[in-house]
Design brief:
This protein has helices at residues 64-82, 87-102, 157-163, 169-172, 211-214, 219-228, 232-245, 268-272, and strands at 11-18, 24-34, 44-49, 52-59, 113-114, 116-122, 129-135, 139-144, 147-150, 194-199, 205-209, 252-261, 277-281, 288-292. The chain has 294 residues and is α+β, with helices and mostly antiparallel strands. It has one domain: PPM-type phosphatase domain (Phosphatase 2c, domain 1), CATH 3.60.40. Residues 266-294 are annotated as: Disordered.
C-alpha cells in the first residue's frame, strides 16, 4: 500500500493457522498510511500481507523517496507471493530494490533511500517465532503484559549519541539531528538489517510505524491508544487521528498486529522463567541475533 492522497482508509485482515504441537495461532492486523498535514506527497509505503509486515519511509527530493520505498515494498511483496519468506529471501529482495532505485538516476541521488522495518512469522522450525528486521529509524514496538518496549534500535545520529551517553533520551526528542539516519536502503550500497527473534506469545500486540507517528506520539501515547482500542483497525485509526491532531508534520504509517494463541506451547514452563535476552543462530546460520523469551 503506497498512497499520495490526503487520507487513506485503514485496511484490516486476519489469519488463523494450526500449530504442530496442538492449538491455533490467530493473527489480526490493520495498516494505514497518510501523507500528513504538511507534506505534498506520501513517500511512505506499507506491506501487511501474512507472514510479512513492513513499513518503509522513503527519503530524497523530487520522487526519489517514493521510488525507494515503493520499490522496496514491491520486492518484498514478491517474496510473500513466492511463499518463501526468510532472512535470505528478504536480503535478496532488498538487493534487488537497490538495483531498482539505481535504475531511476533522473529521480534519485545519494540522498535517496528508505527505511525498512517490520517483522515476519518464521514457521521453519518446530515452533513458530517472530523475526523483526530494521534498517533506519522506523520502529517495531511490542506490548506485552501492559508493558510497551521498543524492539528495534534506531539507526540514527541521535541514537548513537544516546548510546554513547552524550545525550539523554529526553534531549534526543527535540535534537536538531533527529531526522539524520545512519543506515538506509538506497543507491549507494546494499545494507543488511538488524534482526531480533521473539517467541510467539498469546496476547502480544505489535506496532510497526514510521517516524511520522513517533514525532507526534510518545511511547506513552502509543500504549494509551492500544489500551483504548483492542481492535487493530480502531487502534491504527486512533493513532493516526492523534498524530494528525498533534501536527502531522511528516508522512504517517502504522501497522497494529494482535496475537492470539491457544493450546500448549512446547517449553512454556521453562521459557516463562527466562525473561532475559538470549543469543541464537540466525536462520541462514551466518551470524547470531538476539532472542527475547518470555
Amino acid at each position: 500500500m503506497s498512497d499520495t492522497d490526503t487520507d487513506t482508509a485503514a485496511s484490516a485482515d486476519r489469519r488463523t493457522l494450526p500449530l504442530s504441537g496442538g492449538g491455533e495461532l490467530t493473527l489480526s492486523w490493520a495498516a494505514v498510511t497518510h501523507r500528513g498535514v504538511r507534506r505534498d506527497q506520501n513517500q511512505d509505503a506499507v506491506l501487511a500481507d501474512f507472514p510479512l509486515f513492513i513499513v518503509a519511509d522513503g527519503m530524497g527530493g523530487h520522487l526519489g523517496g517514493e521510488i525507494a520505498s515503493a520499490s522496496t515494498i514491491d520486492r518484498l511483496g514478491a517474496v510473500v507471493r513466492d511463499g518463501k519468506v526468510s532472512v535470505k529471501t528478504i536480503e535478496r529482495a532488498l538487493a534487488k530494490a537497490v538495483k531498482d532505485i539505481l535504475s531511476h538516476p533522473q529521480a534519485t541521488d545519494d540522498g535517496t533511500g528508505t527505511t525498512v522495518t517490520g517483522m515476519f512469522l518464521d514457521q521453519s522450525g518446530a515452533e513458530p517465532t517472530w523475526v523483526t528486521l530494521n534498517i533506519g529509524d522506523s520502529r517495531v514496538y511490542l506490548l506485552r503484559d501492559d508493558s510497551l518496549v521498543q524492539v528495534t534500535t534506531d539507526h540514527s545520529v541521535v541514537q548513537e549519541l544516546v548510546a554513547a551517553g552524550r545525550l539523554s533520551p529526553e534531549e534526543a526528542e527535540n535534537h536538531p539531528y533527529g531526522n539524520v539516519i545512519t543506515r538506509a536502503v538506497g543507491p549507494s550500497e546494499s545494507v543488511q538489517p538488524d534482526y531480533v527473534r521473539l517467541d510467539v506469545v498469546d496476547g502480544d500486540r505489535f506496532v510497526i510505524c514510521s517516524d511520522g507517528l513517533t514525532k507526534e506520539l510518545t511511547d506513552y501515547g502509543i500504549r494509551h491508544f492500544l489500551a483504548e482500542n483492542r481492535d487493530p483497525k480502531a487502534a491504527v485509526e486512533a493513532m493516526l487521528a492523534a498524530a494528525l491532531d498533534n501536527g502531522g508534520r511528516d508522512n504517517i504509517t502504522v501497522i497494529v498486529l494482535n496475537v492470539e494463541r491457544t493450546g500448549h506451547r512446547a517449553g512454556d514452563a521453562e521459557a516463562d522463567t527466562d525473561t532475559a535476552a538470549r543469543r541464537g543462530p540466525r536462520d541462514d546460520g551466518s551470524s547470531t541475533e538476539p532472542i527475547l523469551a518470555r
